[in-house]
Write a structure and sequence with these properties.
Two copies of one chain form a homodimer.
Chain A (H helix, E strand, L loop, with lengths): L9 H8 L3 H8 L7 H14 L5 H8 L4 E6 L5 H15 L4 E6 L4 H12 L5 E5 L5 H9 L4 E4 L9 E4 L2 H14 L5 E5 L6 H16 L7 E3 L7 H14 L5 E4 L2 H14 L8 E3 L5 H5 L6 E3 L2 H17 L7 E2 L3 E3 L6
Parallel strand pairs in A: 1-2, 1-3, 3-4, 4-5, 5-11, 6-7, 6-8, 8-9
Antiparallel strand pairs in A: 10-12
The structure holds a DNA duplex.
Chain lengths: ~325, ~325
Amino acid sequence: MSNIRKPPTMADIARVMGVSPMTVSRAFKADSLVSAETREAILKAAEDLGYVFDSTASNFRSQKSDFVAVTIPSINNANFADTVGGLADTLAARNMQILLGYTNYDMQEEERLIEQLLRRKPQAIVVTGGKHTPRARRLLETVNIPVIETWDIPAEPIGHYVGFSNAGAVRQMVDHFVSAGHRRIAFIGGDVGRDTRGSERRTGFIAAMEAHGLDASRLIAAGAPPISMREGANAMARLIEIHPDTQAVVCVSDLAAYGALTECRRLGVPVPERFAIGGFGNYEIGEVCVPTLTTINAFAREIGEKTARLILDILDEGAAIEDVRITPELIVRDSSR
Amino acid sequence: MSNIRKPPTMADIARVMGVSPMTVSRAFKADSLVSAETREAILKAAEDLGYVFDSTASNFRSQKSDFVAVTIPSINNANFADTVGGLADTLAARNMQILLGYTNYDMQEEERLIEQLLRRKPQAIVVTGGKHTPRARRLLETVNIPVIETWDIPAEPIGHYVGFSNAGAVRQMVDHFVSAGHRRIAFIGGDVGRDTRGSERRTGFIAAMEAHGLDASRLIAAGAPPISMREGANAMARLIEIHPDTQAVVCVSDLAAYGALTECRRLGVPVPERFAIGGFGNYEIGEVCVPTLTTINAFAREIGEKTARLILDILDEGAAIEDVRITPELIVRDSSR
DNA sequence: TACTCTAGTGGTAACGATAACATAGGCTGT
DNA sequence: ACAGCCTATGTTATCGTTACCACTAGAGTA
């Protein structure tokens, strides 16, 4: 019984076909020089033999993979999932594969992950955010592949970036509330110090409030990022207890905002009449819930698509390379009008 | 300027340290025989030289990777994300990495993906569901690595499975509605023929209704899977229009159920007094929304964790190998009581 | 007719790590 | 004191593919 015999290689196919291994190799490369009939016959023989192309050997020999490494804070987040989806779909056209890792909103974990991903010799690496541990930063600076930071505009970009100003986006929301006549505005976010983007939104909130000459001290920390709907609801209960005269609240994400919304409903607080609510991220929930949720669209999927196109441009060298600044869009819905 | 010099290899480190490449290699393997001081010195030298371990070469030489290939229908689905999270976290303890691909609920796409993933010589492959194209099935049958089907109990398992009966789970929901006194019960799902698990839930609904001697013809097709909240809402509107005397509805997922819930609110239909609603998947939304949502917990994360442990058991050979049957749990909440 | 030129194919070496085996010392026990 | 063993290290060959170069036959060109 030779059921455990070694899987066939290109050399086996070559032997069967009476051609050189080189020709077999070429038959598997779309754009290389083999006569159409030879290629067809080889591919058929390969299929018959149950041959499976060995990407590892191929990558090893050619010293380049078809991987793009990607780190995101959490796999279970619709925004980042959209970004990864945009990336994967756009890169799939070039037969490139995403190598995904998630950091759990932890820079230390990100460092480990980056190191592990770089071992695969990816063609490019995409990270979320513009803040990293010193060692992670050094790793990214010394690696000679394109590095793209996303979901942020880094103070000092390592390579390229595709992102937007989180602080600026929150400013839009604050401006909207202020122009609607609100003065006593609060912010619900995660505990300080973990989630970088969350912190920037918080900082942006404070700056925007102060720019309007308003008090920016109504800050509720709802727990370790990412904030769940439940935590958003709890934070809302706390906010109403501590600052009952608050008129509007900016939430670090739509999930928190939705939690806040349900808490208002439970407490019988009418939204938006008594309390205006704004979220972040344009999650599906925001356009379906009652009342619909004012939010900020950060164009998560577009970030992924544009990142992918940037990577392809860089690899093609030739095309003009430019960083991409996304302009988030305020979407005013029923929760604030 | 030698900024573009080739990255250092183990041989370079060996030269610098005055040891053999083999010793350097061993220094990077946790459990191998090198004196503590030699290892430390080598790792330090490696760090100084900016050495990055080449997993590709390592995998190639040893003819085994540390990948586990995983296909899921969609990356943007909290249930599958949880499963992947459970897998990744459990496998991370053994330094194994997930190689993720998504099929977009398309068996043809799944076939392409499986072929591509197998080229990486993964240690195991995890697929979602128990239905595949003939070619995909053959690929999985002939590959000599563990194959695990999840989220289903396949009629003819290819290798192992970690799953549950989708039909049986829906039966629990129907039984619950019936014992609550409902007779005119509807089902909201996706268009027939694409999403396998959705189809099974639909079939399960029909079977369960007929077992109770009830009419099972109130079936609303809400669009191409996966059904969004919006589509769930639209389907609900249609249901109320076509069958205004319906008493309860089983939805293919919590997202659809939530959409249905909001539609009821918009229409002023009281839930659960006038209309009971049940979902599937125990998404976070279901325990936060008002009223909270009756659902079925399929233990998505546990599926991932148990799949990972199964894989580790198989690879360790020695441990007893058993397929895992998950028992979904009906969670009764306010939308049906 | 002689002469490029191109498409199609073959031969050889190499990518970087490590499996398998070999070896040099130091230590144990009788 | 010496066989026997264990620890730490070295040597050699190799995984499967493809980069690089060489070659041939026939078409096109002067």
